[in-house]
Write a structure and sequence with these properties.
Elements (H helix, E strand, L loop, with lengths): L3 E11 L5 H10 L11 E10 L2 E9 L11 E6 L4 H14 L4 E5 L12 H5 L8 E3 L8 H13 L1
The site of magnesium ion has 4 residues, from helix 1.
Length: 155
């Protein structure tokens, strides 16, 4: 049986400085060097297998919501060390509308500085929305984030 390949475009949204560029950079290049300077659209293919499908990711960081850009879904990146990021979540989700979305709680390597955690986010969002704790700095859970994203958009 030939392996099927699917191309999925995902927009990475979230507050400024939450780590959108860093998460993309960690996933694409497996490092964080020079990430903040990276702008544009990134590709990574063949990494994730779900059933008999391989996924090619097209990732794009976006600064402004709402957006008219086409997408299979969103990753929303938030920084738990900043109290204001929790308050932003309802506003961000409202501007995303009824698109598929997954939340990346980034910077978990700095948990000791956190102002809020997964449970606090859960109270604000629809129970169907997955919240994945990650660290772009250490790479923890980054592959899981994109695996769950692929699962979400392929449903
Ligand atoms: N400790 C820590 N710092 C991070 C992490 N991810 C990003 N940063 C830092 O947070 C700052 C903002 O990251 P950046 O990717 O530019 O955020 P963006 O504005 O959302 O694209 C930079 O100084 C990054 O080095 C992380 O997982 N852990
Ligand atoms: Mg950026």
């Amino acid at each position: 049986m030939p392996v099927q390949s699917k191309i999925i475009k995902v927009l990475v949204a979230g507050t400024r400085g939450s780590g959108k560029s860093s998460i993309i950079c960690r996933f694409i290049y497996d490092n964080m060097d020079g990430c903040s300077q990276n702008e544009g659209t990134f590709y990574r293919s063949g990494l994730i297998n779900i059933d008999d499908s391989k996924f090619t990711f097209i990732l794009k960081e976006i600064r402004n919501l709402p957006t008219s850009e086409n997408t299979a879904g969103f990753i929303v990146v938030i920084d738990p060390t900043r109290e204001t990021d929790l308050k932003e979540i309802p506003y961000i989700l409202e501007n995303i509308g009824n698109k598929k979305v997954i939340i990346a709680l980034n910077k978990i390597d700095m948990k000791y500085l956190a102002n809020f955690w997964i449970e606090d986010v859960k109270e604000l969002v629809n129970g169907n929305i997955k919240i994945i704790p990650v660290s772009a700095k250490t790479g923890e859970n980054i592959n899981e984030l994109f695996f769950e994203t692929a699962r979400m958009v392929s449903k």
